[in-house]
Recover the amino acids of this structure.
């Protein structure tokens, strides 16, 4: 059945027609996921059609599906951690051929002409034309809504797909396209190297990746979590210690760098207090709208000469670099494969603290 559906998509691509797709969607912010049929834009000269084999579930998917950051575009098919096989290519595609493996992350297009795009910082397109993989208007295709990876296929510009070797474990590659790049990018930006003392706040899908990358870069790692349930896992990965407190009287270490992956309400200043003089803190976790703590800027004055910045995924060049680095050093997320009809259960586990690892949907189960 799955092969027949893909064959239909390939035929539509060759005929220049809109491409049939099916997946799982929510129809409103209080909905649960149900099967959903839709279509994608036709295959352009520079596009590739990917048969999605695996799609990771990111906490961003939950925030978006439930309109916790902004009012979502419904029906919504989330998913921006995508790995699969190229099954059709446009006439001008040079980077891929049919049969290659490819990955798609958080973006599927941008203007390509502004200074940010030319520097491969497409996520910061200065013309506001970054097209995110789902819950976004596609400015290059009549403003139709984008649909993500909880589906059987995706059509994307070859410029916004990364190359994946044939021998790569696709189920583990998929989450790297968000969880990987989101943590790799700030570690590179802050030049983490051997001897750096690094704190990782939050020990979910993102936090675990931050620990693995920072260790490979030579850092000494400490983890901050809500409780000690995952202490064994943190220590087994190579962390020196897991703290379930940010009390500076208890936490004796002071850090060169702290990365916060926390997706719920918290006070970032308790971590700034733990930075060394000249230390840096990167914020990648995004709490729901209305739950971010408002900080008095005078608190920063009394924590002078420390740097706090936000980081948003990474550009396409850095995303490919991250994937190559991950594969070279066998840095993969801890994953649990689920069937497509288990998405609702996965969301419940992720929001109640029951999830241990990154859920990855096996798209053969659609």
């Amino acid at each position: 059945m799955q092969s027949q559906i893909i064959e239909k998509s390939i035929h539509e691509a060759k005929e220049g027609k809109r491409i049939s797709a099916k997946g799982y969607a929510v129809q409103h912010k209080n909905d649960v996921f149900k099967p959903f049929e839709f279509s994608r834009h036709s295959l352009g000269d520079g596009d590739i059609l990917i048969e999605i084999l695996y799609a990771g579930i990111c906490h961003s998917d939950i925030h978006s599906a439930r309109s916790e950051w902004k009012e979502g575009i419904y029906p919504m098919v989330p998913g921006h951690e995508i790995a699969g096989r190229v099954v059709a290519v446009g006439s001008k595609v040079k980077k891929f051929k049919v049969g290659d493996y490819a990955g798609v992350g958080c973006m599927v297009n941008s203007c390509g002409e502004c200074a940010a795009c030319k520097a491969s910082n497409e996520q910061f397109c200065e013309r506001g034309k970054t097209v995110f993989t789902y819950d976004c208007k596609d400015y290059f295709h009549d403003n139709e809504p984008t649909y993500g990876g909880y589906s059987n296929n995706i059509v994307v510009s070859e410029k916004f797909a990364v190359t994946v070797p044939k021998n790569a474990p696709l189920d583990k590659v998929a989450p790297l396209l968000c969880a990987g790049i989101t943590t790799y990018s700030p570690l590179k930006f802050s030049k983490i190297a051997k001897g750096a003392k690094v704190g990782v706040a939050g020990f979910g899908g993102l936090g675990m990746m931050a620990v693995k990358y920072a260790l490979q870069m030579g850092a000494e790692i400490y983890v901050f979590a809500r409780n000690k349930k995952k202490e064994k896992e943190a220590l087994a990965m190579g962390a020196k210690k897991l703290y379930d407190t940010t009390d500076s009287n208890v936490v004796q270490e002071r850090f060169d760098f702290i990365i916060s992956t926390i997706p719920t309400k918290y006070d970032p200043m308790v971590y700034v207090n733990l930075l060394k003089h000249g230390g840096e803190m990167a914020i990648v976790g995004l709490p729901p709208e209305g739950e971010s703590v408002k900080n008095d800027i005078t608190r920063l004055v009394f924590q002078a000469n420390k740097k706090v910045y936000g980081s948003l995924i990474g550009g396409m060049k850095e995303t490919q670099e991250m994937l190559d680095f991950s594969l070279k050093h066998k840095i993969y997320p801890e994953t649990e494969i689920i069937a497509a009809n288990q998405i609702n259960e996965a969301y419940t586990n992720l929001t109640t603290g029951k999830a241990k690892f990154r859920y990855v949907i096996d798209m053969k189960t659609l």
In short: The mean pLDDT is 95. The first strand starts at residue 19 and ends at 25. The chain is about 25% helix and 25% strand. The longest helix spans residues 170-189.
